[in-house]
């Protein structure tokens, strides 16, 4: 009996073990099947970014440069003859405006007066000698003919031809000496050669001046000229030379010390490149600068603004739209990030102007206002704060060769 119970217990234990084994195996398989079951894909999250609608248009750069307003002529006056200062004009004072031909000062030189008198006497004697020689020549001609000679004499001295030529030369020389003496005497008067502003005066009444002494400085008042240097990249934004010179191309002259502003004109266009700066010069002029409502005083430091020619097929974007890598980030047809490299045509304080790629000129694109280096191409984007990049299409302020740096 005891032996049967032992076998029974053993059988029950075996059955229990088998049951536990199958239970654990089934549970593990069920868990494995649960883990291996594919999960449903989560929807892609779009990145919310601010964009701007970029529309192609025509824009013109504004080129600016600084320069110094200089008079057309700046003359250091010197006397041509020596003498004592006899008189000085009341207008020959710093700051005074004088007309062309105005007598600034008169010198006294007795030697020049005597030289004129002597030269006049020499001319009179030469004229008398010429008249006597003409008479003697006529007399010699008559005597030769009266002698019955039909041929010319062997020597022209017989008819006094050389003597007549010498007398004429003496008279011409005497007249030249008189003209020179009169010229020197006339130079005892210092005369303004053009309408001028007196900058300074250095002579005093009664002072004796030797020849070529400096007596003052005059600035012409007909116009001032401002020379500016432009790089080749700036010249590319301007029209051709003939257009600049013949079409009254707009030029604004702005004082750096006041709100005063003037409309100038292009006077000269440099046709050579400076070997050191590698730039070409352009000269701007303003007529009658001291007669303007706000006079432009010679020596003033000014800023010149030139309107550039109109450039087509450009995007005008905020400066922040251009990354440090010179890339523009935009949304493709699937609202995913895409990019292209570019070099701006010009920039100003607010905007960057770039050429639109040929394959993107058919429609408006959404461009990121401020891209970051961490962005990845192909990222899905939800555009925010969409605005238009259109607006005034001419008159951007400053044209440059390279874009401004952005804090991107």
In short:
By secondary structure, the protein is of the alpha+beta class.
Structure explained in plain terms:
The protein is α+β, with helices and mostly antiparallel strands and 408 residues long. It has 4 domains: 49-61 and 311-388, conserved putative lor/sdh protein from methanococcus maripaludis s2 fold (Beta Barrel), CATH 2.40.420; 64-72 and 222-309, Elongation Factor Tu (Ef-tu), domain 3; 74-106 and 191-221, RNA polymerase II/Efflux pump adaptor protein, barrel-sandwich hybrid domain (OB fold (Dihydrolipoamide Acetyltransferase, E2P)); 110-187. 26% of the residues lie in helices and 34% in strands. It is built from 5 helices and 21 strands. The protein has helices at 2-36, 110-146, 161-186, 232-235, 241-246; strands at residues 47-54, 57-71, 74-78, 83-88, 97-98, 103-108, 189-191, 196-201, 208-209, 214-220, 223-230, 251-255, 261-269, 280-287, 301-318, 327-331, 337-341, 346-347, 351-355, 365-368, 381-388. Strands 2-11-14-13-12-15 form a 6-stranded antiparallel barrel. The longest helix has 37 residues, at 110-146. The chain is rod-shaped and about 200 Å long. It starts with a helix and ends in a 20-residue tail after the last strand. Residues 385-408 are annotated as: Disordered. InterPro entries: RND_pump_MFP (IPR006143). This is Efflux RND transporter periplasmic adaptor subunit. GO terms for molecular function: efflux transmembrane transporter activity.
């Amino acid at each position: 009996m005891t032996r049967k119970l032992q076998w029974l217990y053993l059988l029950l234990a075996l059955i229990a073990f088998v049951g536990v084994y199958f239970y654990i195996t089934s549970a593990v398989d069920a868990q494995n099947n649960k883990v291996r079951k594919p999960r449903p894909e989560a929807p892609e999250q779009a990145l919310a970014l601010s964009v701007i609608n970029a529309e192609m248009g025509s824009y013109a750069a504004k080129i600016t440069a600084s320069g110094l307003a200089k008079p057309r002529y700046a003359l250091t006056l010197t006397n041509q003859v020596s003498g004592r200062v006899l008189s000085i004009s009341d207008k020959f004072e710093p700051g005074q405006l004088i007309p062309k031909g105005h007598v600034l000062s008169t010198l006294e030189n007795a030697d020049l007066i005597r030289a004129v008198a002597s030269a006049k006497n020499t001319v009179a004697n030469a004229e008398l000698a010429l008249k006597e020689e003409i008479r003697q020549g006529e007399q010699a001609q008559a005597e030769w003919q009266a002698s019955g000679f039909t041929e010319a004499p062997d020597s022209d001295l017989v008819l006094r031809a050389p003597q007549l030529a010498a007398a004429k030369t003496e008279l011409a020389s005497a007249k030249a000496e008189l003209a020179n003496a009169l010229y020197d005497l006339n130079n005892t008067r210092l005369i303004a050669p053009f309408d001028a502003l007196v900058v300074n005066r250095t002579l005093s009444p009664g002072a004796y001046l030797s020849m070529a002494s400096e007596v003052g400085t005059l600035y012409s008042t007909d116009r001032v000229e401002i020379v500016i240097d432009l790089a080749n990249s700036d010249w590319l934004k301007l029209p051709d030379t003939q257009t600049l010179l013949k079409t009254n191309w707009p030029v604004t002259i702005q004082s750096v010390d006041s709100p005063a502003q003037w409309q100038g004109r292009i006077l000269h266009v440099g046709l050579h490149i400076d070997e050191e700066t590698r730039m070409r010069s352009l000269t701007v002029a303003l007529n009658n600068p001291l007669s303007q409502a706000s006079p432009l005083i010679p020596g003033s430091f000014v800023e010149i603004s030139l309107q550039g020619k109109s450039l087509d097929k450009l995007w005008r974007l905020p400066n922040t739209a251009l990354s440090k890598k010179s890339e523009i980030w935009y949304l493709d047809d699937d609202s995913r990030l895409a990019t292209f490299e570019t070099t701006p045509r010009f920039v100003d304080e607010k905007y960057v102007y770039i050429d639109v790629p040929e394959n993107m000129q058919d429609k408006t694109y959404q461009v990121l206002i401020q891209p970051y280096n961490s962005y990845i191409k192909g990222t899905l984007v939800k555009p925010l704060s969409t605005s238009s990049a259109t607006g005034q299409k001419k008159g951007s302020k400053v044209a440059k060769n390279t874009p401004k740096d952005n804090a991107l």
